[in-house]
Amino acid sequence: MTVTDRRPILISGAGIASLLLGKALLRASIPFRIFEKDHSIVFRAQGYRLRLSSEGLDAIESVLGPDGFQEFWDACGKTGGAGFAALHAITGEPLVDGISSYTSDEKKEGKDNESERRIRETLASRGGKVVGISRGDMRRVFLSGCEAYIDWGHNVVGYESTASGVRAIFADGSKSIEGEMLIGGEGIYSRVAEQLSEGKLKVFDTGARGIHGQAPTTAFKGLGEGVWRILDDTKPDGKVFIITNVRPGDMDDPNIVFGWTMGAQPGVIQPPNEDYTITGAVAANIAKSITQGWHPRLKPLIDQMVENEAAFWKITCSNPTGVPEWKNDPRVTVIGDAAHSMTPAGGIGANTAVRDSALLGKLLAESGGFSDGVTVAYEKEMRIYASEAVGISYGLATSQFGVKIDENTPTIRRGQRPV
Hints:
By secondary structure, the protein is α/β, with parallel strands linked by helices. It folds into two domains: 9-74 and 135-202 and 319-400, FAD/NAD(P)-binding domain (3-Layer(bba) Sandwich); 77-131 and 205-317, D-Amino Acid Oxidase, Chain A, domain 2 (2-Layer Sandwich), CATH 3.30.9. It has ten helices and 16 strands. The protein has a six-stranded mixed beta sheet. A five-stranded parallel beta sheet has the order 7-2-1-10-16, sandwiched between helices. Strands 3-6-4 form a three-stranded antiparallel beta sheet. α2 packs across α9.
């Protein structure tokens, strides 16, 4: 497949939203260039496993088409078994509807959070199975075919409009070729989002922290197949939980690893600094200290972890009231976390990001590339579903992480992404 001789659409960042948009443009024969700060797709840790909703899968399928989606589908894990189940970390016993006996009377009386109910209803996204894929595997599938259109080691810190287009500005002061449009997809630290929205797109640091970890699949045999939430609500400083997805077929192969994600309320996990790149043994040792009293059924997940893959992460969220309005620029817009950062609660951030890619890619394909109304139409529709998703994510996080965003909550400084 070849692209036309038109000026390219410029995309900052090579995350899942940007790469999927690249695939959409490739299928539509619309030229594009992706600029990524990292020097390769394996430059840093790829994060935790992503759970895909029916909306997320539909968006990906609409972009990749039947053949491309089959390759993606084959790379996904499909989990049945216990479905979505919760265990108490100390006793190893199941929690009724994921609710600990230590939680509020309101929840014990069955007055369940509406957001939690909706997440459970959409969890089994296809064929009664929970569908998931690691972020790294998703990026590799989306990267296929786009390799020639990516410039690695290019950190976009802003842009300038030209008489008939736009140029990306890089950290070293150099500029890109002129493009018809610029799409900011470089995540929560997006300088494109900051410039475009004139600071209206804020990302709040909730104070909650987490640790990503991996362990051989044999460490998960005590759990069995299913999507598991392990809750420890006995800590004096707040709750800790782990989410993991145990897939069938791999549990007897020690050469395969499964991932888990630990999250905690503010103050429980205290990284030694604000550097959230790979920290290896430092992160692993904190995870081990937090889980010392956990049940023997669950301890192997932590005790057998691959220490050099352990990493800290901070839990952020956009304004819970929704994606704000900003002055529209026909040639510049944002997708994914650059437009709407979400907590990991409910696992809907990535699903919303791929919906952005599918929608914007569809609009661009229909217009054959840039046209005056594309960003207006995209932003109008995106604000509706993304604002709803941010609200659900925040609602879940208030109960799961104990976070609250108000006028005193600090914001992430754009451009301050760890190197």
